[in-house]
Each structure stands twice: as structure tokens, then as C-alpha cells.
Amino acid sequence: MITIDALPLLIFFRKRLSRILISICLCFSTISGALAEDKDELVLRYNLIGSESWTSYGYLGDDTRPGAFAEIMELILKRSEISYKFFYYPPKRASKEFEQGELDIDFMSPSWFKDKNMGEEFVHSDKIFELTEYVVTLQKNAKKYQDPKQIYGKRIGTVAGYSYHDDDKFTRVDFSSESALVKGLKKGRFEAVILEELTAKHWAKEHKANIALASVHTHGDIVLRLRAQLKHLLPTLNAAIAALESEGEIDKILKDYNIR
To answer: What top-level branch of life does the organism fall under (predicted)?
Structure first.
């Protein structure tokens, strides 16, 4: 039996309990809404340009033929049903924006980093395809660089914002693009640069430079690099990559750009 004296106390506790329950419900409602909002409004930010002259990978200004990376990225994200937005930053700024969390995803190779370590703040997808970069010289200097370690201690042409696993062992001479590197090579500003084969041959032809692929600098997998906060997307992205590879869609793009 509840006495009259106890009734005010009971009413007090019932009011407090009601407020607590309402707060809990509101909290769960807010969390559920935030999760739903994150899922619905997630937009991955990707930089479209490797550099404006990374033939046949980067964006060259033609929206109908934006480069292998842009086409593959669009293919994977559409299959994953993830919204995305492209940006147009040069490599050096893109690297900074990525480190500051202003970009979310890009193409990268662990082989470009010391000990293949891209950092704890990043995760990466399964392999999409493989890419080889060379120590590129003028033909007259090719014999000096039969071993990639022969670049150590020397001034080597590089692209500003790009990563090189051993750039602590040589002096980087940063230029804005692959095209500028081949021009610098032709003019004798350095004896060697680091470039991918198709890119090197394309700009050598454009600038009438007599080049040689002296030795392999790096060979490794191209993957999607993702900010670690978004690692929950990896299963979806990897499933999309596997499906597109099985269907031959990625290979089709690579062949279209003469990469395979």
C-alpha cells in the first residue's frame, strides 16, 4: 500500500524516470539518424589529375577521354553505389589536401613508399593492376644507370607531390609534370628521371628527346588508398574491383589506353 506521505516522492521519481527514458530515446534517435545521414550523404572526394601530363593515366583536359585512372575510379565507385566528387588539383596540392583530410580516396602504389608503408592514417584496397616505373635517361647515359641504385647521391628529376620510396638517397629536382621532366632531361638539367614507360615515350616523342629506359625503379600494385576513417568501405570497394576484373571491364579500359 502506498501512503499519502510517499505519494509526492513516487511522483517525483516517475517524472525523473520519464525524462531519462525520453533522453535515451532521443539519443538513439540522433545516433540512428546520423548513421543514416552518413550513409545517404557520403561523397568520396577524389582528385582527377595525377598531373596534367601523366599520359595515359591522368586527366588531360578532355572530359570524353579523362584518362585511365578517372575512368577506373568512376567504374568502381558506381559499382559500389558510392557517391563521389572529382577535384582538379595539381599533384603537390593534392598530396597536401589528402593529408589534411580534404580528399578521401586516390590511386597509389605501396611500392612508391619506403618499406611499402603508406602510413597508419591510410588503408588500401586489393590490387587493381600493376605499374612499372623506370629510371629514364638519354640514350648516351643509359649505361650509367643499369642498376637503379646508381641514382643514389645524384640529382634526379621527379614530379612535385609524387612519392618515391628511396628519395632520401638522391636529390629530388621537382618539376610540375612529366612533360617538364623530359624537357629538363633533354636540356641536361639532370642525367636521369623517374617515369612510367608510356608516359616517358609519349613526351620523348613530343619533345624529340632520344631516351632510354635504363632500369626498373619500381614495380608494384596499383590500389585505392583510402583515409583510415573510411575503412568500413573496403569490403564494398574490393567486391566491386573483383567483379569488374572478372567481367573484364578494368582490362577493357587499360587496353583502350594502351596500358595493356
So the answer is: Bacteria
Question: Which three cell numbers, joined as nine digits, stand for 58?
Answer: 591522368
Pick the CATH number of 131-219 from 3.30.565.10, 3.40.190.10, 1.10.3720.10, 2.60.120.890: 3.40.190.10
Identify the H or E element spanning 223: strand 211-227
Q: Which residue has the cell 539518424?
A: 33
- According to DSSP, the β-strands at 211-227 and 129-138 are antiparallel
pLDDT in tens, 134-158: 999 999 999 999 999 999 999 999 9
Stretch (H or E) spanning 21: helix 7-41
Query: Going by C-beta distance under 8 Å and a sequence separation of 6 or more, which residues neighbour residue 245?
Result: 128, 251
pLDDT digits (tens, 9 = 90+) for 98-120: 888 899 999 999 999 999 999 99
pLDDT in tens, 73-82: 999 999 999 9
